[in-house]
Queue: 2 jobs
Job 1
Amino acid sequence: PTEETLVLVKPDGVARGLTGAILARIEAKGYALVDIRLVEPDREVLEKHYEEHAGKPFYEPLLEFMQSGPSVAIRLAGNRVIEGFRSLAGTTDPTTAAPGTIRGDFGRDWGLAVQQNLVHGSDSPESAARELEIWFG
Ligand code: CMP
């Protein structure tokens, strides 16, 4: 079924000039860009977005990292796009993410307190609805 998901090109992806390469993969896969914008989220937005991670050891470094520069927020649509984008992105840890995925091809461990893994994609229809509301209102 046609659905929508929130994709973020995180600050590391934007800073490294990988936005175009990442968008090219999303477009080549055939998903539709419904809305896209450059954002500098404040802490409140990030606290809502990452509420499930509050209290974890990487939580504060994560919020700091996400405020280190702009991200690109994308409302992306297509049949099974939630699952499909997560497959394009690869697993959370960029060191072991499969080659051929965004994280596997462009990411690595930089020895920091937080995994800088280039992109975010909603993990369920419920998360997608919640996160799209946070980032696009
Ligand atoms: P994402 O899955 O989009 O949302 C949570 C983020 O926290 C994740 O991307 C990584 O950037 C980061 N993260 C998740 N797990 C860890 C971990 N074990 N150590 C450091 N950072 C993590």
Job 2
Amino acid sequence: MAFWWYGAVLYHVYLRSFRDSNGDGYGDLGGLLAGLDHIAALGADAIWLSPVNPSPDTDWGYDVSDYCAVHPELGTLAQLDEVIAEAAARGMRVLLDLVPNHTSDQHAWFLDARTARDAVHRDYYVWADPKNGGPPNNWLDDTGEPAWDWDGATGQYYLHNFLPTQPDLNWRNPQVGREFDAIMDFWCDRGVAGFRIDVANGLFKDAALRDNPSNAELLPGHLPVPGSHGQQHIYNYNQPEVHGVYRHWRARAAERTPQTLLLGETWVLHPSQLAEYYGDGDELQLAFNFPLIFACFSAREFARVIAETFAALPPGACPIWAGSNHDLPRLGTRWAGGDQAKMRLAHTVLALLPGVYGLYYGDELGMADSDIPAELQRDPLTLGGKNGQWPRDNARSPMRWTPDGGFTTGEPWLPLGPDPSLNVASQDADPDSMLSFTRDLLALRRAIHGGQLNGYEQLHVDDAVFAFATGPAVVVANFSGEEVSWAGVGETGTKPVAPWSALVYLVD
Ligand code: NOJ
Ligand code: CA
């Protein structure tokens, strides 16, 4: 069975930074409507929208206070309906961000849960008694602080794997699952094509709440991984019970036509762990590849992680390749160090692999990270470099639409990126721009992969060159500052491959 996402491009809209329609400095649904033509012109097949639900915004929407409504600052439900319809008119589908691991502490469930130990929603959350006069175990949250907060009124701790304002839900309570079935139905009935599932490897925690072992080691070949804080998170993530949820969701997804897409934020470090989230083809249809995101930008590391991914995935599984997101340094900085040639190479390799290609807003312009001064940062989770965390705001700069900005008529919530040339209008008019390059690349991708799940064969790897064959294409990527030559291009023979660039050719 072929799915619509085979060979697709998924464009990731971080809504508050995409485009503002009312001058309050925050991107919104009206801005997205105005920017849909830009996304369609790239050749995107679908859009993943960062959270749109009402939220006190202690984690910019990842602290949901109402799962079945739209945040008034971002727009209205009618506007979201319009986004879905207007996207469809341009051949694109819309995925929402679903946050099932935790709610806001202002969600009605948690407000009720903390009123009394026998409150109706008490068991929607993870509560535990003190141990030796302190927290129940050694778990740390994403900021490196204890993952337990004391609730004086009811005399127990509650769990939060992220901020204290984001209490973790208790998925051992079947009622929580029933709530999320209804939430997903609500959005699917409105025409949403699927969900990006936040913290998809969370949800369940060790039933005995055992201590996590320590782990100060850096994995060989990997960049530092934020959020581990010296622990192996083996008891508060990746519990076997989570797979039952995904089998259930997948069975429900399959009842819809087309099948609802379930895309996991699967923050795991090895492709074998990633593969588990595909199940036997009966769990998530897509799982973000964090092992590749944490790989160094080299021919050998890319070849290794990509080979390990294909070896690990179950038969017929569809990978997704994305180099940037709103939580990590953009690939333009992390891999390319601001070098446009390296950015183009990274996008070429990712976009020409079989599966789904995830493109983060602004990467098509060559955006790299901003260096937002501490006093202008807005992300409470990393504010002031909390516990050495890299400020996520640096990857969330508002997009530039014109040479003088064009993002808002007001004061942008975060400063725009420092390079005014990285704007849509100027690059649209320039055939040599990163934007024109991206459009051409995605057209080539469509010709190679559109509607297909092609195979993958590694042809070669050395210190400089990584080459693979997929469908009708051969991709020869030169990850070095020296020109190399590649033999075997049919009758044309040996070809030069310029530094930090790729040679792509089609074979019969
Ligand atoms: C992952 C999201 O991408 C991130 O932005 C958020 O802070 C955490 N999950 C918690 O929801
Ligand atoms: Ca706005």
